[in-house]
Amino acid sequence: MAKVAVLGYGTVGSGVVEVLDVNAKEVSESAGEKIEVKYILDLRDFPGDKHETQVVHDINIILDDPEIEVICETMGGIEPAFSFEKSALERGKSVCTSNKELVAKCGPELVELAKKNGASFLFEASVGGGIPLLRTINDSMKHEKIDSITGILNGTTNYILTKMDREGMGFATVLKAAQDKGYAEKNPEADVEGYDACRKIAILSSLMSGKHVNYEDIYTEGISRISIEDFDYARALNMSIKLLGICKRGESGYSSIVSPFLIPNENPLANVNGVFNAVNVHGNMLGDVMFYGKGAGKNATASAVVADVIDIIKHRGRHIDVNLKSEELTLSPKDNTVRQFFVRVQEDVRNQAVEVFGSGIEEVKGENVHGEFAFLTGDLSEKDFWERLRKLDSVKGYLRLY
Amino acid sequence: MAKVAVLGYGTVGSGVVEVLDVNAKEVSESAGEKIEVKYILDLRDFPGDKHETQVVHDINIILDDPEIEVICETMGGIEPAFSFEKSALERGKSVCTSNKELVAKCGPELVELAKKNGASFLFEASVGGGIPLLRTINDSMKHEKIDSITGILNGTTNYILTKMDREGMGFATVLKAAQDKGYAEKNPEADVEGYDACRKIAILSSLMSGKHVNYEDIYTEGISRISIEDFDYARALNMSIKLLGICKRGESGYSSIVSPFLIPNENPLANVNGVFNAVNVHGNMLGDVMFYGKGAGKNATASAVVADVIDIIKHRGRHIDVNLKSEELTLSPKDNTVRQFFVRVQEDVRNQAVEVFGSGIEEVKGENVHGEFAFLTGDLSEKDFWERLRKLDSVKGYLRLY
User: Fold this and answer.
1) pTM of the model as a whole
2) ipTM, 2 decimals?
């Protein structure tokens, strides 16, 4: 019998308790023994809840109990989560968490601490929600040279983009509807500005490179500037618009970015719609492998946390290696990345645009857009693109091509 | 340093040797030690090959060498593969294989033998080629109650269906072109009649149920009766036609089938095209998770074999559990399965069709098909459907709806 504590009885935390309840038989078969929630840490009380007697308000009750082997931290945010996890690891208790912010910021430190104390620090649920992604990259794909990871890593923005595309409604209208339905937060900045996706691609970039990628170093654009006209052009190009997090290994090192991209419809990522997430991993031998599933949500995310708990119990007394290192990685500068771009300007600066971007550009006509000149550039470095774009008056929009 | 032998220096076997060569650094980091190919068993010699000195013709050289820890069987077929694997396991050597035929037929026996001798029997590459699927189901998802597994499990048939759809060419023409390109075998029966997909869904059904599902018990239909008119109707329905292998857990037990299905385009499986494979697993907590990648091909399949080798070396001296049991599972009879069907009859039996299937049927009009009456039925059991269909003259085709 293994005993665990859940920190934070919110959406994911209550999901963890529920998975351990409902799937108790499968969990114990998988772990080789029963797993019991002994404590739930929360500021609130939960009178009437099935687990009300397990609720405690003092972290030290958990830290001081030698029976507790694993802590599931599902509170989110940096503090007090970091201090709680640090204290647990220092006492040889293992930690698993869905807290991408903390993993992106302090992951290497916590992994090192776990290693030092013969414990483990796992975070499957921090990227791609329920998708069994990190364990697969760390285990089944560790013998591959991974060339690139490309992901739709945020369900809220993917829901918004899908809805804008299908229903021809503007960003603000769809965001409002998503907020009313609870699909988007009251303060939607972390999602729509790409910050959440940035934390996740930072974690994936770190796993891929074996060094620590600081999320603040990753160039990040959100989706708030995407308009329904952009979708009109995308349709004309037989493409979709997706917010992608990308990490690529090139000759000059690793480069990472979060940005909306035009992506051809034959790419399976283009067909990932609604709140779903998907991550494509390209290995040198394996080629493309894509993982698809619910990127958020109570039970899916909780199931990934429980998978970590089971892994820890199965490997009791052994540190599970996760390839999250402290050594900082300097990303290759975004300026050097070469790609195609899509640009929209007002019709009256058509000649100026052709002059600035050259005659090799390819005009794109949107079925319902008028008074504009839109075009695809040839391959340009980001630096070159921006230098040219700044020479143009009346730019109405631009998108990167995947 | 771990030493392995590769049985069969064909496509997959030479791929295994190549992955171990090219990714030697990553392989040894993942396994914790170097992995070396000591022997390659083949009937042929390979003069001039980098590994010609490792080639042997006598299995006993391998079996008698105590240095050999792992055998990679990439020959295919039942014999002599089965005898070789059995002998290896009896001597405590672990086996990994891409041989779906053998796994489907003798998997439980080989797993038991492995267990008895403190060795492991792994077969990641036997289903979904390079996709890290079986390990994920066995490890990361073992605490889920899996409700269903649905897969596009055969790349050749998916290539043919994609080509028929996109280029409006008939089955025979596309098959011929696929054979010329080497995408389909000279004797294409195993692929186009669904036998290959049947072996694979049998393996998945066994893993899902924890009992042995005999592939001969699985109702199997291939794609040779699919016509370009079917694709015309599919487009009208906003659906695709895919050869699916399905295993479902229902109230009356498990049911499995291999058949072409009409599948709505919003389902991500509908957008899996060309030689790619994809498998959707539905867990009670996790919801849908889909895995996508190359279902065949030298290096992708070989990479999955190498992942098994690494797993065995990492867990040296321990049997790795794979949930393939000897106890036979009786599948729920196909007759009881309830679903919608799509039916095409000649125009002149329209009234007869309406009489037999009832007025609740829904007519479907294909853009370029004439002289036919096509319709969707309501929900019917397979038994009921067939009883009704047999009453109709001039049936031109039918499809199941997913």
Assistant:
1) 0.95
2) 0.94
